[in-house]
Design goal:
heterodimer; A: mainly alpha; 15 helices; B: mainly alpha; ABC transporter involved in vitamin B12 uptake, BtuC; two-stranded antiparallel ribbon; 2 strands; 74% helix
C-alpha cells in the first residue's frame, strides 16, 4: 500500500529469501525504515496498557485516533514536501484559512459541497503561491513558506477581526467533522484520512510523480540532468500539501464548530514533528506516508497517556520535546538494525559485503553530513 | 578591473542593500508621521527591539556555520522566567542576570551536544528543545508567581541611562561589537565561515567541525539568555508564552539582512540591520495608525520583497564583477544559479 522506497538502494539480495514465512516477515520488519517508530509506538502502548487500565478501552482508543487525525493528514502532506527536499511552515495557517473559507461560504448560504470546493481551491492557491515563490523568485523554502504563514494567518485575522466565526454548522457537517459517527465508532474523518493515506501512498510509491519527488529531494542537480522538471515537481509537492491543509481545515472547522483566528497556530510544528518521527528526513529524498501516520499516532498516544496519568497539561510540551528526540534516536537505531540485517543477508547470499558495509556507515552518519 | 568600482564593492558587502532600504524606509516614515524620529519614540522602539535583535544575531551565527536554531525564542522566554524567579527568591541582581545567562548557555550546550555527539539533525533537536523550554516556562509560571517583580538594580538594565541613552542599548552595542569581532577577526570566526561553506573541506583542513558547531550553538544560547534577561528587566513580569514565535522573526530578520540559510554567508551587522528593518516597519505601521491585524501580512511582504531585492542586487553586482552586462544574467549564469539554489535547498537542513 504505502511506499517502501528510501534513500538506500535496493540490495541485490532478493534471492536469499528464506522459505519460512515467519522468518520472511521478520526479515521484512528488520529492513523496514519505520521499524524504530513502530517499536516505539508498540512499546508505549504495551507499557501503558499494563499501567493504565483505561488506556485499552475502545472509547479511549477511538478518542486517541480521532484526536490524531488532523495532525495525521497535515503530516502526510508535509511528508510529500519533505521528500521533495522542501519544508512547509505555512501548512497550519493554510489549514486555518481553509477552515475560515468553509465557514464563511456556509454562512453565505452556499451548500456544503460548494463550501468544501472553495476551501480546496484556496488550499491549491496557497500551494501554488508557495511553489512559485520558491521556484520563480528563488526564495529559500523556509523563508517563502514563513512569509506565506504570515499572509494566510493575516487574512484570517482581518477576516474574523479577532472574533471566532460561528453559526455555520449544517446538519451534514456533523458527519464530516466527525462529531456524529457514520456507523459504530467509525467517523467521517477516519475514512477521509484513510483515503488521503491510500492516495498519497500510491502517489509516492507507484507513480512517476512519486519517483520524481524522491529524485528531486535526493539531488536536484542529478534530477535535472535526468530530465526531471525540478521546478514543476516542487510546485506540485506544495500544491499537495496545500490540498491536505484544506482537507484538514474542512474537518477541523466541522469538529470545532467555530473558527477562531489562531486556529492553526503551532500545527506546522506538530506536522513536522509527526513526519520526522515517521522517518522523513529534512534533507529530502526520504519519507513515507505510513511513517507520517505512525508519527501522528505516537504523538497522540503520548498526549493521551499523559492525560490519563493525570499529569498536568503544562508538562505536555516537555514530553513532546522528549518524545521527538527519542523517536529520532529510535529511527537511527532502526537504520543500524536494517543495515546489519542487510549485511547479513548479503553475506548469506555470497554477495560482496562492500555495499552493505557502506550502508551501515551511511545509516550511522546520514544526518551528520 | 575597471568595471569593479567602489560602488560595486560596497554593494557586494552583505547587508548593504538592506541598509539602504532601511534608510529609505525611515525617511518615508518620517515624512508620513513627523513623530517617528522623536527621541522618545526612537528610544521606545529600539529598546523594545533589542531582545529580538540579540536573538537574531545568535541565530545568524548558527546559520553562518550552516546550522539552524529554532529554540532561541522559547529559551529567551525561559531565561527571562528563571532570571525573575531568582530575583523573587531574594537573589542579588548579579545572580539574577547570571541565572538567565546560564539558562541560555545550558540550552545551547544541550543543543550543540545532541547535534554533534548524537549526530541528530539540528532542525529536529532545536525543535525538541523549543518545546522543552516552552514547557518548562509554563510549569515555572504555574508554580511561582512572576508578576510585577521590580528590583531597582535589575530594572536599570533597561530603564537606566548612560549619556542619556538606555543602558540596554549600550549592552547590545557592546555585544554586537564583540560578536562582529569574533566573527571577522578571530580564528573561531574564520572557522565558522569555513564550516558553513564546506564542512567536508573544513574537516580535511584540520578544523574541528563538531567543536565549531557546538560553539555556535553555545553563542546562540548565550545571546538568547541575554535577550531573556533584558526582556525580564523591561517587563518585570513573565507570562507562560513569552518568547513563542520569536525564532521565526529572528530567522526572517537574519535572512532579510543577507545571511544565507545555506551557510557560509553572514555578518552580525547585516543581521542587526535585517532585524531592525522588521522592527521599523512595524513601528511605522503603528505610528500611522494601521490596524495590527495587517502586521503579519505586511511583515510577510517585507520578507519576500527584501530577500528578492537583496539577491537581485547581489546578482547584478556579481555580473558586473565578471564584466557582464548588468541588464540581466545570461542564460548559463541563470542556470548555474538554479542548480546552486536547488542544491543549497537540499543540503541546508542536512548540515
Amino acid at each position: 500500500m504505502t511506499t517502501t522506497r528510501t534513500q538506500t538502494p535496493a540490495t541485490p539480495t532478493r534471492t536469499a529469501r528464506p522459505a519460512n514465512p515467519l522468518a520472511r516477515l521478520g526479515n521484512r520488519l528488520m529492513l523496514d525504515p519505520t521499524l524504530g517508530v513502530i517499536t516505539l509506538l508498540i512499546l508505549v502502548c504495551v507499557v501503558s496498557a499494563f499501567v493504565l487500565p483505561a488506556f485499552l478501552t475502545l472509547t479511549n482508543l477511538t478518542n486517541l485516533v480521532s484526536t490524531s487525525l488532523i495532525v495525521m493528514i497535515l503530516a502526510m502532506g508535509m511528508t510529500v514536501v519533505l521528500v521533495s527536499g522542501g519544508i512547509d511552515l505555512s501548512i497550519g495557517a493554510a489549514m486555518a484559512l481553509c477552515a475560515g473559507v468553509t465557514a464563511q461560504t456556509l454562512l453565505l448560504g452556499l451548500p456544503l459541497f460548494a463550501a468544501m470546493v472553495c476551501a480546496l481551491v484556496v488550499g491549491v492557491i496557497v500551494g501554488i503561491g508557495n511553489g512559485l515563490l520558491i521556484t520563480r523568485l528563488k526564495l529559500p523554502d523556509f523563508i517563502a513558506t514563513l512569509a506565506m504563514l504570515g499572509f494566510a494567518s493575516g487574512i484570517l485575522y482581518i477576516w474574523t477581526g479577532g472574533v471566532p466565526i460561528i453559526g455555520y454548522m449544517v446538519p451534514e457537517y456533523y458527519y464530516i467533522g466527525g462529531l456524529t459517527p457514520l456507523f459504530g465508532v467509525i467517523t467521517g474523518p477516519m475514512l477521509v484520512a484513510l483515503a488521503v493515506a491510500l492516495l498519497l501512498g500510491w502517489m509516492l510509491g507507484s507513480t512517476r510523480l512519486g519517483s520524481h519527488l524522491f529524485a528531486v529531494g535526493s539531488s536536484p542537480t542529478a534530477a535535472m540532468q535526468s530530465a526531471v522538471r525540478v521546478d514543476r515537481t516542487k510546485v506540485l509537492a506544495y500544491v499537495i500539501s496545500g490540498v491536505t491543509a484544506a482537507v484538514a481545515g474542512i474537518i477541523l472547522a466541522g469538529r470545532n464548530t467555530n473558527v477562531p483566528a489562531d486556529l492553526g497556530v503551532g500545527f506546522e510544528i506538530q506536522a513536522i514533528a509527526a513526519a520526522v518521527i515517521g522517518g522523513a528526513s529534512l534533507s529530502g529524498g526520504r519519507g513515507r506516508i505510513l511513517g507520517a501516520i505512525l508519527g501522528a499516532l505516537t504523538l497522540a498516544a503520548t498526549i493521551n497517556i499523559i492525560n490519563l496519568e493525570g499529569v498536568p497539561s503544562s508538562y505536555q510540551r516537555i514530553v513532546i520535546g522528549g518524545i521527538l528526540l527519542i523517536a529520532v534516536l529510535a529511527n537511527r537505531g532502526s537504520d543500524v538494525v536494517s543495515a546489519v540485517a542487510r549485511q547479513r543477508r548479503a553475506t548469506q547470499a555470497g554477495v560482496s559485503t562492500g555495499s552493505a558495509g557502506r550502508l551501515t556507515d551511511t545509516a550511522l552518519h546520514r544526518e551528520q553530513a | 578591473m575597471s568595471t569593479q568600482g567602489t560602488t560595486t564593492k560596497v554593494l557586494s558587502t552583505v547587508g548593504v542593500p538592506i541598509a539602504i532600504v532601511l534608510v529609505v524606509l525611515v525617511v518615508v516614515f518620517q515624512i508620513l508621521s513627523p513623530v517617528f524620529l522623536e527621541p522618545s519614540s526612537v528610544r521606545d522602539y529600539i529598546t523594545n527591539a533589542i531582545p529580538i535583535l540579540l536573538i537574531t544575531v545568535g541565530v545568524a551565527i548558527v546559520i553562518t556555520a550552516g546550522g539552524i536554531d529554532l529554540s532561541v525564542g522559547t529559551v529567551a522566554g525561559l531565561s527571562a522566567g528563571i532570571s525573575l524567579w531568582a530575583l523573587s527568591a531574594g537573589a542579588s541582581t548579579v545572580v539574577g542576570i547570571l541565572a538567565g545567562l546560564a539558562t541560555g548557555v545550558l540550552f545551547g550546550l544541550i543543543n550543540g551536544l545532541l547535534i554533534t555527539k548524537l549526530a541528530i539533525n539540528d532542525f529536529i533537536v532545536t525543535l525538541a528543545t523549543l518545546n522543552i523550554a516552552a514547557g518548562l516556562l509554563v510549569v515555572l509560571t504555574e508554580s511561582v508567581s512572576l508578576q510585577g517583580i521590580s528590583v531597582p538594580g535589575f530594572s536599570s538594565l533597561v530603564y537606566g541611562r548612560i549619556l542619556g541613552i538606555p543602558t540596554s542599548f549600550w549592552i547590545a552595542v557592546i555585544i554586537f561589537a564583540a560578536m562582529q569581532f569574533v566573527l571577522v577577526r578571530t580564528m573561531l570566526g574564520r572557522r565558522i565561515f569555513a564550516v558553513g561553506v564546506a564542512p567536508e573541506a573544513a574537516r580535511n583542513a584540520g578544523v574541528d567541525v563538531p567543536g565549531i558547531r557546538l560553539s555556535t550553538f553555545v553563542i546562540s544560547g548565550l545571546l538568547a539568555g541575554a535577550a531573556g534577561v533584558l526582556l525580564a528587566s523591561r517587563l518585570g513580569t513573565v507570562q507562560a508564552f513569552l518568547g513563542v514565535g520569536y525564532e521565526f522573526t529572528a530567522i526572517a530578520g537574519a535572512v532579510l539582512g543577507g545571511v544565507s540559510l545555506a551557510g557560509g554567508r553572514g555578518s552580525v551587522w547585516a543581521a542587526v540591520v535585517g532585524g531592525l528593518l522588521l522592527a521599523t516597519v512595524q513601528q511605522g505601521l503603528r505610528l500611522n495608525g494601521v490596524d495590527p491585524v495587517y502586521f503579519s501580512i505586511v511583515t510577510g511582504l517585507c520578507i519576500i520583497a527584501g530577500v528578492v531585492f537583496d539577491r537581485g542586487v547581489q546578482r547584478i553586482v556579481f555580473n558586473r564583477m565578471l564584466g557582464r552586462p548588468s541588464g540581466g544574467p545570461p542564460r548559463d549564469v541563470q542556470k548555474t544559479d538554479d542548480v546552486m539554489a536547488g542544491a543549497s535547498a537540499g543540503s541546508r537542513a542536512d548540515s
